[in-house]
Write a structure and sequence with these properties.
Strand content: 25-35%
Number of strands: 3
Shape: rod-shaped
Largest sheet: 3 strands, antiparallel
Order of helices and strands: EEEH
Length: 92
Amino acid sequence: MRCEACDAEMVLMKVVRDDAMAVLGFERHTFRCSACHETERRLVFTNHGRETYPEPLPVHPAPPVVPATAVQDGPIAAAGLFGRMFAKKRAR
């Protein structure tokens, strides 16, 4: 935003939510000119309002990941009748 007096850049100094309005989302912005230090106040409507963030959530480290082994430690259990028959033939 530009200063109306000297056309220098205005700096946003303060934002205050205005709860006096019937509709939520209005804020009072205070700007100050970077060159002549003129102060200007504006009523601004923010479409969705500003979100108020609660306390930040604590960050917990992820549990360690154990890689899967590529080779099985023991024989795989055969399932069903045919699996048991083939397992017996392999054992002989």
